[in-house]
Amino acid sequence: MGIVDRRDFLKLAGGTAAAAWSLPLLAQDKFQEVTDEQVKAIEKGLAWLARSQSRSGAVGLTNQVAFTALAGLAWLAGGSTPNRGKYASNLKDALRFILRCTPKSGYVNETAGRGAGGSGMHGHGYALLFLAELYGMCGNLTDESIADDSVKEAVQRAVKCTEKAQDASGGWTYDPDPRGHEGSVTITQVEGLRAARNVGIAVSKATVDKGIAYIKKSTAPDGTIVYMAGNSGSGTYALTAAGACVYAMFGITDTAEAKRCIKAMLEFLQGKRARTGGHDYYAHLYASQACFFMKAHDSTFWSEGYATLRKEILATQDKATGAWLNDGYNGAFGTSCAMLALQIPYRCLPIFQD
């Protein structure tokens, strides 16, 4: 049996992705894409995110644009939309919050500076991804308080902001200022632009090409991704996972840089390289995506790499609350990243389509 189409899958699931996994769909030899333990962890994690949402619709105590967008993506990834599913009301409130944070300039932010609780361009990139995925999943929204055109227009404005903020090097920095660059922000912008383009929003090809070229320039001889293009030495596991995600997402697997980076990421997962630099949840978010995008080229990334990540993620869940609390942000970031990683096999998000 092949993979179920996302829309048919949601009908089967009744808006809750886990409900459809009773089908004998996911057993691939000895590897199961979704396990019972995984489903239970997802149920508890999504519920924790819902309980942590404030009346404003925001998630998290700081960096609320980033964490609300990531939590929104997690609820979408579970099969809910603003009009259906267990977390419909949470998604509606999250969407309203993100739209309130999207001015005419297109820069999605809390108005607070990055050092004063604001999300900066990291949050803008996650918000762009959330809005694009929601627009791609939902089509015309029937609730007049959240018109579909408003979401589309917000995506278009956010894309323009990202395009204008690109540095001449091809990278982006922490603020929407085209004078500076570093790798982690660049990766959030490139994925957000890819998601927008996937759902029919006009995106500058030159901007995307320059962003990918920046990742190539950031790939060290040992395959790791350095903090900033032009830096010498080795990069971290987290940035390497994110760089591998970009290469795999765009189907760039044959260049020398891509081969080195993708090989390095797999070796990190296999324990052949020591993981340095911290930022575990950021790494989980991107390594899991890289494994998904790479599976068409080499099933090892999915059956072994993703299986390794899943085991690590499940082992660090707080069993009492259902959250991932040791992220430095009281669980808002870690739980959202874990939820997205664990729900990739559900294939509800447009970006996670085979």
Give a concise summary:
This protein is mostly helical and 354 residues long. It has 13 helices and 2 strands, in the order H-E-E-H-H-H-H-H-H-H-H-H-H-H-H.
List descriptors.
354 residues, mainly alpha, 13 helices, disordered N terminus
Tell me the span between the first and last alpha carbons: 14 Å
Question: If you average the pLDDT, what whole number results?
Answer: 90
The largest beta-sheet arranges its strands as 1-2
Characterize the main sheet.
2 strands, antiparallel
Helix percent band = 40-55%
Q: H/E series, N to C?
A: HEEHHHHHHHHHHHH
Shape: globular
Report on this structure.
By secondary structure, the protein is mostly helical. It is 53% helix and 1% strand. Strands 1-2 form a two-stranded antiparallel sheet. A hairpin with a 2-residue loop joins β1 and β2 (31-32). α3 (64-77) packs parallel to α13. The radius of gyration is 19 Å and the shape is globular. The model is unreliable at 1-15 and 19-28 (pLDDT under 50).
SSE layout:
Layout: H1 6-13, E1 27-28, E2 31-32, H2 36-52, H3 64-77, H4 88-100, H5 120-138, H6 148-164, H7 183-198, H8 205-217, H9 237-249, H10 256-269, H11 280-294, H12 300-315, H13 332-343
Antiparallel strand pairs: 1-2
Helix pairs in contact: 2-13, 3-4, 3-5, 3-13, 5-6, 5-7, 6-7, 7-8, 7-9, 9-10, 9-11, 11-12, 11-13
